[in-house]
Amino acid sequence: MAKNIESNLYTMLFTTGMVVIVGALLAFLSSSLKDKITENKRIEKQQNILYAMGVNENDKNSVIFVSKDKVASEFSKYITKQLVITGTDVVEDDKAYLIDLKKETAAAKIEGYTRRLPLFMGMKDNIQYYIIPVRGKGLWDAIWGYVAVDNQLVVQGVYFDHAGETPGLGSNIKERFFMDDFKGEHFLDGDLFKGISVSKGNSDPKNLDKEDFEVDAIAGSTITGDGLAAMLKKDLKMYLPYLKTIKQ
Amino acid sequence: MEHLELFFKAIFIDNMVFATFLGMCSYLAVSKKVSTAVGLGVAVIFVMAITVPLNWLLDTYILKDGALAWLGPEYAVYDLSFLSFIMFIATIATMVQLVEIIVEKFSPSLYNSLGIFLPLIAVNCAILGGSLFMQSREIQTLGLAFNYGVSSGIGWFLAIIAIAAIREKIRYSNVPPPLRGLGITFIITGLMAIGFMSFGGMLTGGEEEEAKETETVKVEVVKEAIDVANNEKETKE
Amino acid sequence: MGLLSKKDLKLITDPLADNNPITIQVLGICSALAITAELKASIVMSVAVLFVMGLGNLTISLMRNIIPPKIRIIAQLIVVATLVIIVDLVLKAYAYELSKTLSVFVGLIITNCIIMGRFEAFALANGPLRSFIDGIGNALGYALILIIVGFFRELLGSGSLLGFKVLGDSIEKTGVYAYGYENNGFMLLAPMALITVGIIIWIQRSRNEALIEDN
Questions:
Q1: Which of C73, C106, C117 lies nearest to residue B96, judging by beta carbons?
Q2: What is the helix (H) or strand (E) element at residue A131, kind and residue range?
Q3: Are strands A197-199 and A214-216 parallel, antiparallel or unpaired?
Q4: How much is the average pLDDT of B204-231?
Q5: How far is A55 from B124, CA to CA, in rounded Å?
Q6: Which of A155, A162, A229, C84 could pair with A197 in a Cys bridge, judged by C-beta atoms 3.0 to 4.6 Å apart?
Q7: What is the C-alpha separation between A170 and A225, in angstroms, rounded?
Q8: What ranges do the domains of chain C cover?
Q9: Which residues of C touch B184 (CB under 8 A)?
Q10: How many Å apart are CA A211 and CA A186, to the nearest integer?
Q11: Which residues of C touch B29 (CB under 8 A)?
């Protein structure tokens, strides 16, 4: 085969061939695995929402979700109602947990679009929980999670996750020692919204003061921590009008 | 003003080498002589100045969620951002191939001294990082994207010039033989990075805005709460 | 193993010592700084790189005679990116938990200069089996450094190894913390990773004088 590898024609043929093969390979793989992946993501959302309200199989130190085979039944057992708040309009929707916050944030940038706010209501041991999905930016990429509050608007549990924070540093926002700190924290001072900041000068490493509107930061993860605090401030504020109506 | 702020921020505060540690391989390997460092640094600025705006165009008009709306409203649902990685790398690789051809033709000595690190500009995480940061920090205009590309490149350039100059000077110092060359460079870079952390404090400000915001929310909240409560009452009845 | 000659075995032993990708070839530094704040991440990244380098070197070597020189960089990048995306997709479908740990690293693997560096330096000019072995060898050399740095950074920076608090609890003040020891938070920051690698280079070259650079 006396093909002239250097020729432009060959280069173009090769490039086209490669693009076609790679494109076909990835498209085939992506579409055949798509359903499994979507299902995995759906299950993960349910596990995370349940986790935030305290339905999980945690041992002393690790985060252990409700197992995949039990999650569907646990979800329908503990999550009593799912709401979608659009402006002042509140409707029930049992697919609310599938709303993609990333898409809502992007759509909200367009004039005239009122963003949809999903809210999940759960009941466990006679306590009413309201679980709020949040999403923001860490140091490298997106961070997101769920904040569960009771009807006094005191945080009862959280779950955080990230797309690409530094392992051992920012990635620790999903560790027990950080998430557990949020339980019992307040973000409202009377009627004034204060949010929860992630503070280095907290001098409260065991986080015993629940009304300081702060949790202890993670060493080496300043920007991730600040991004998390900003995310909580921005997103919780959006739910405030509705939340104030349930506060007793 | 925004341009000036972005320019200085990208060079000193978000310096590609010292703040985010991108592009270390070529930085450490090509800094033995100031002349080669200058050559590589200029190549990096050039590649970044072109790829960041180019990738901005790609991102805005093809990749972003809803970016394809200019083709027609039904295309707005497509979100091709998962292709960002490959498309950005493809643009960068093409540019680097071009640069390689140019350098080989106009300066064979530079081409030889850069060796394997010229094609490695394509995987230089600083260049890809520049495009990815442009995307994740949502840089708004083409002009700002060009600004960001040039200034990030200049930041990298300054870093490699600095370390090359230091390395040339310490050749006459009493460095223990096993540390000579690469070893001491690692340690000096670490120390320079620690020094650069002091620029991080320049990012303060903008917190006074937050305080005012909380007040206005209070007022709106009361009005909306009444509306929502009324709506709920109606739906219940 | 009659298949492997002495020369082939050197392809594995060299990168573990005298031709280490990080400390001698100066490749793969970015990830050595970014990933090594915890030991577990260092291990996961090493396994992923092992897989991608072995298969990548093999693929490029098989294609070496048909890649047009003008676009060889792009072709190499496409091969790496495709391999990494395949790994990511398969994990997302069949081992979702594991894929979440890996997704973070996907970008860092694709731009890992070791992979392209070995394509250029070896796979483009050698046969498939030898290229495969070279890929594995260099990945092991990379893993060695990553694990050493990760070990010290996590131990001295967080007082733990693989998440287990081996020095006691820093908040409850048990173990060594009872004597006043505090975690060196600085070890968690990237500059210290640079200095740690510098020290590893120091030790390596002290043991093998042939590696010392001339002035």
A1: C73
A2: strand A127-137
A3: parallel
A4: 45
A5: 45
A6: A229
A7: 7
A8: 24-207
A9: 198
A10: 6
A11: 26
pLDDT at A170: 85
Q: What residues contact residue C213 under an 8 Å CB cut-off, 6+ apart? A: B180, B181, B182
First to last CA, chain B: 57
Residue B155 has a pLDDT of 93
Which ipTM value was assigned to this complex?
Answer: 0.81
**Which residues of chain A neighbour B220 with C-beta distances below 8 Å?**
241
Note whether A6 contacts B: Cβ–Cβ < 8 A.
no
Q: Taking the C-alpha atoms of C153, C157, C161 and C162 in order, what is their torsion angle to the nearest 10 degrees? A: -80
pLDDT digits (tens, 9 = 90+) for B90-115: 888 888 888 888 888 888 887 887 77
- B25 contacts C27 by C-beta, under 8 angstroms: yes
Q: How confident is the model at residue B229 (pLDDT cuts 50, 70, 90)?
A: low
Q: Quote the pLDDT of residue B17.
A: 87
Mutate to test the interface with C, among A15, A44, A160 (most CBs of C within 10 A): A15
Q: Domain ranges for chain A, please list them.
A: 42-246
Considering only alpha carbons, which residue of chain A is nearest residue C84?
A26
Q: Do B228 and A90 touch (CB under 8 A)?
A: yes
- Whole-number pLDDT of residue B228: 54
CB within 8 Å of chain A, chain C residues 105-164: 107, 153-154, 157-158
Distance in Å, alpha carbon of C37 to nearest chain B alpha carbon: 14
Per the CB < 8 Å rule, is A168 touching C154?
A: yes
Structure tokens at B176: 């223990």
Selected for mutation to probe chain B from C194, C197, C199, C207 (highest B CB count within 10 Å) is: C194
Q: H-type helices in chain B, by residue range?
A: 2-8, 24-29, 34-58, 84-106, 108-114, 125-136, 142-170, 182-196, 208-236
The predicted-structure confidence for C50-71, as pLDDT tens digits, reads as follows: 989 999 999 999 988 888 887 7
DSSP structural state of residue A148: E
C5–A contact, CB cutoff 8 A: no
CA B236 to chain centre: 54
3-class secondary structure, A118: strand
Paired tokens of C50: 């092992």
The answer to which of A72-86, A151-165, B177-191, C83-97 has the lowest mean pLDDT is C83-97
Q: What is the pLDDT of residues B61-84, one digit of tens each?
A: 877 766 776 776 666 656 666 667
B224:A194 CB<8 A: no
Task: Identify the pLDDT of residue B46.
Answer: 87
